[in-house]
Structure formats: C-alpha cells, structure tokens
Amino acid sequence: MNTPICDFVDRYAASAPVRLHMPGHKGTGPLGCESRDLTELDGADDLYHPSGVIRESERNAASLFGTGETLYSTEGSSQCIRAMLYLAVLAFQEKHPGERPAVLAGRNAHKAFLTAAALLDFDIVWLCPENREYSLCRCAFGREQLGTLLRQTPHAAAVYLTSPDYLGHTAAVAPLAAVARQWGVPLLVDNAHGAYLGFLSPSRHPIAQGADLCCDSAHKTLPVLTGGAYLHLAAEAPAGFFSHAREAMALFGSTSPSYLILQSLDQANRALAGDYPQRLAEAVCQLDGLKRRLGRQGWGFTGDEPLKLTLDTRSFGYTGGELAALLKKRQIYCEYADPDYLVLMPGPGNLPALDALEKALAGIEKRPALPPPELPPFRRPERRMSLRQALFLPSQPVPVQEAVGRTAASLAVSCPPAVCPVAPGEVVSEEAVQVCQYYGIEKLSVLKAF
User: Fold this and answer.
1) CB neighbours (10 Å) of residue 78?
2) What is the pLDDT of residues 248-282, one digit of tens each?
3) Is the CB of residue 305 less than 8 Å from the CB of residue 194?
4) Alpha-carbon span 154 to 5, nearest angstrom
C-alpha cells in the first residue's frame, strides 16, 4: 500500500527547500525529526479540506478498516468523540428543530464526552452498570436497559458506548446496535482502546458489528505516534454524517495539525496492509499462553480483550498500586493501576517484554487474598442542574468528606474512561464520597452557591 503523505514529505525534505514558512524550527533541531515537520504548504494538503495526499491516505485507511469513510485526527480520540456527538446532535436538530436532544450513554464515558455535553448542550441519560464486580472502570449493561431507556426518551439523539473499557472488557456491540436501530437512533462507540480489533480474524471492530460512528485511538494499540486517531463512518451511516463530518472535526480541532502524526498514520496503513494481522495473531497467542501459565501460579484476571493483560491483584494479595511499584523496581511499567487491578498493554512490537514480565511475576510471593471492597452499589445520582450549567458557574475545591449535599462542579474521575461517582450538576451523596475515598480522590470541586 502506498504512503502518499510520507512520500510528499520525503520529496520535500530531499529538495533542500528554503523554508520561509512555519514551523519556527525551519527543519533543524535537537530532536532529529524537524526536517519532516511541516505545515499546510502547497502540495501537503489540508486536513480539514483534503483533496490530495491526505485524502488519498484516508481512503487507504478506510479500505483497511472496511468503513464508508475514515478521517484522521492528530488530537486523539477526544477530537473524534466531540465530532461524533456534534454529528448526532446536528442530525437530531434537522429532524426535530427546537427540541432538546439527549444522548443515552454508558456511565464510564471519557471526560471528552462530558465536556462535549457542556459545549453542545445536550442532556445525558445514563446507562448504569449492571456488572456484579465493582469497578469504576467498568460499566456493563444489556439490551433490556437500553431498550427501556430508549422507550422513555423520545428525544434521544444517539446511544453512546465505551468499548473496550480500561480493564479490557468488550461490549456486545451487535445486539446493542440492533436495539438502537429499532428506535432509529445512531450508535456511537468510543473504541479508543480497540483500533487493532479490526485486524483480528474475524474482525471485532465496532463498525463491523453495527456501529454508525466510531473513534479509534490509533496510538494506543497500533504503531502510530501519540495523538494519532481515526473517526470512522459506517457505509450505512446516515448521509448527513458524511456531508458534515469534516466540519465537525474542524470545529474541535487545531488549525495546525501535526504533520509528524499524519505521517505516522499514513505509514501505519502500509504496516496494517502488510504482516500486521499475522503478528497480531502471534501476539494474542503468546499472551493467551502467558495467561494460562500465570493462572496456574494463582494469578487472577479480568476482561476479554485479547491484547490486554488485566491482573486481579487482590486475588494474589496485593493492591494494583503495590504490584505496580514492585514491577517498576524491575523497570516494568504498567498502563494503569488502582486498588483492585493492574493493566498491562503488550503488543506485536514488544513480545520479548512478556518474558521479562513472566519472570518478574514469578518472583513475587503470593499472599492471602485481599477481601473484596465493601462499596455501595451504584445508584443514579440526583441531578440538581444540567452539566453545562454546573461547569460554567463559580466553584471551589473542598475535602471530599465536606462535599456531601453540595453540587458537583467538575469530574470526580477524569481519565481513564471511568464511571463518575458524581458528575457536574449532580448532588454529592454519602455513597459517592465513600467511592471517591476508596479510589484516593481527596477533594471535589463543588459550586459555591449550591
């Protein structure tokens, strides 16, 4: 597969150009990559109005992912999340002018979803977790809850799903998409952690399972620089999504996109069209073998995502933070740790790391299992005002135990995508405080006047 963006930059850099344009480093500097860092000069195309090398590269990506259209982002999935929601709200307003839209969303949404709700001013109807094992990072729900809430929400503009979650659980996208389709509502999926799912056999990508719109953080699991992401439109998505997708991305994106990231996305197409699926299959096989061997040693796991290793550390007698510290002493760095779990993200590019990890875990003494956390079940919080109102009113931080009864003004859990114990505009309850304390949240921002 060709790499039109990279080929253009190669030709430009080799021509010994007189750089009387941005960026200010003029092609030289200590990082070594400055000669390849460009702006939208003649021939380099325009990310938000592409007609040349960027458009050609995006079409290559669309063919690889099997989408109706794929757009590049150099600002991660956050830009794509806001663009997806803009498209859904715009489509709703075209059909129901003057009505206030609502988005049905899993409670473990990324903070970009919540800031989008404030910017676009839509209501949120939360799909609450039904999973038995408690974790802020997980929010499993079924088609029954979705169908019930859609029946109760005639002004629904979209259903919004986060899958995979941070712990590696993937949702059953196909049946949820079928329910949304019955009600004529588009399904939007934050697939930030699952860009590689489309290259499994068979594909487990949300677009292949019926999502209308989907965002992937390419940099999280594919050989792409940090910030590289995709906005995918299904071939069957509403026509309005295609006609307004570019303006949606431009609305939330910088006018100075990184050409280093664009080249990385372009180069990834060649890798994905090459031996990446085979290397991915090998990585999944090796990781499955490691899980079996660790299981025989007493380690527990959670999640079903094939390229993520999430250890249930309490079953081995440790908190996630304790285990992360032990691994760090051996120069092994995890992706995420909390009181219950530790998340590791190997990939096809660093399979030798699995040997080092296995040796490190083998040297850790098994201790008596820690008791499960005694936390209250999640209940729908009382909403005092809209999220938008709360984010734009004066607020102040207070110790979490002093926040009971006050109105939350910021996100108790901002990132990774996680279940918010309390979201802006909601009343802080005793239960929410208990959960915050368990996860080490010491202060909450609350409104001054409420």
Assistant:
1) 24
2) 999 999 999 999 999 999 999 999 999 999 999 99
3) yes
4) 45
